[in-house]
């Protein structure tokens, strides 16, 4: 059975005091509420060790927002998989659309990062999705298909099963414009079929595919109710406990 997951991407937000305060609120929430999904957060890397201390019993999965494609060495500013592993981080987002847009990341980079993470038993949350022009031109399935193949199809069946995919149409990220539940379902089912054709249905059925793009308390339940949507990657609405907890309760 694949997992239902709600993951918060904090991006470059919150100072240290505010980040700790949100972590303690989340810990309190997790202690007092039974959730029907796994909950992850991806805080800024500077706060990862603190997050591991606060969630010392693994109440919430702690993820980096990015990881290097290289193992170690002269790569100023980068974090390696070994470093994340050495403080028991659960995994990392890979190729979020903002990394693609502002840092020139491609699916070939994603492929190398994903392989590195899996080699150390860390979970990649691989992000893909089309931009507005590609949606309007009707090319979106082809775009997402090519992204998925390049980033993932060199993996073995055992490896790909451990990847979490986040379909995040770029036109819906941080814009307030959300894909409809049907639009999300169409692409999620397409990704799952693509994986089933390559690796078999059993493998495809084990992979959690999250939707990301302006998920809010008001729309989470409907989006999560779709058969191939296994949760959400949440940006803005992950920064307030009131909103994030209501999204978690969408399951
Ligand atoms: C994201 O950054 O992954 C995201 C989905 O952002 P938002 O929820 O703010 O659109």
Automatic annotation (TrEMBL):
Substrate binds at residues 9-11, 174, 214, 235-236. Its main location: cytoplasm. Pathway: Carbohydrate biosynthesis; gluconeogenesis; Carbohydrate degradation; glycolysis; D-glyceraldehyde 3-phosphate from glycerone phosphate: step 1/1. CDD domains: TIM. One of its GO terms (molecular function) is triose-phosphate isomerase activity. It catalyses: D-glyceraldehyde 3-phosphate = dihydroxyacetone phosphate. Pfam families: TIM (PF00121). The active site is at residues 96, 168. InterPro entries: Aldolase_TIM (IPR013785), TIM_sf (IPR035990), TrioseP_Isoase_bac/euk (IPR022896), Triosephosphate_isomerase (IPR000652), Triosephosphate_isomerase_AS (IPR020861). It is found in: Cytoplasm. Its EC number is 5.3.1.1. It comes from the Bacteria. GO terms for cellular component: cytosol. Belongs to the triosephosphate isomerase family. PANTHER family: TRIOSEPHOSPHATE ISOMERASE. This is Triosephosphate isomerase. It comes from Halpernia humi. The gene is tpiA.
